[in-house]
Task: structure prediction
Amino acid sequence: MMNEYVLVLVIGALSIQSLALIYVLIRMIGVTDRALARAQAPEAVGSTPPLTASKPGKAVAPSMPSPAPVCTKPVDVVDQGLMNFIKKEEGFQAKAYWDYKQYSIGYGTKAASSAEVITEAEAEARLTVEIDKAWKLAEQVIPAGSPIGIQQALTDLTYNAGSGWEHASLGEAVKAAKWDTVKADILQYNHAGGVVNAGLTARREAEVSWFDKPL
Result:
């Protein structure tokens, strides 16, 4: 009787181990099937794409923009001596550069963008247009019959420093033909970024010298 009882316990133990082994095998098969399914399935929407190694090779330098063709229609040169002076003072810059409060290009005219590149012919065409504008503005303020050197000086001041002087004390002195006061006021336009600039000081001194000795 005792031997039969022991035999039953042994068989029961073996059955439990067999069932556990079968369960483990089933789980392993299930994991394998899921792994195969993931490997064969298409990539999920929104998943991060795999990183691709960059191909070896030389780095390609960014291409520089080509100079813009001559598209500005030039106007007649109002004063060749003044134009020559401005070209010498400004110097030619094919690529746009920062100039205190704006991007300039060519012979100091305003650039269309910070990346603009132009030819020298285009720069000269733009220069004639801007000198003409400055000349006409000064002409409206200067009394008729005034010396040409005064016209040259105020035109260059307008081109270089901008308009606005015609509404300030300088403009009032010009209208009243108070030339000593005009000279003194012109010399005050020598600041860049709020600081006295040696180059602008020299340019203002040149302008007031034209009152007596025109270009």
The radius of gyration is 42 Å.
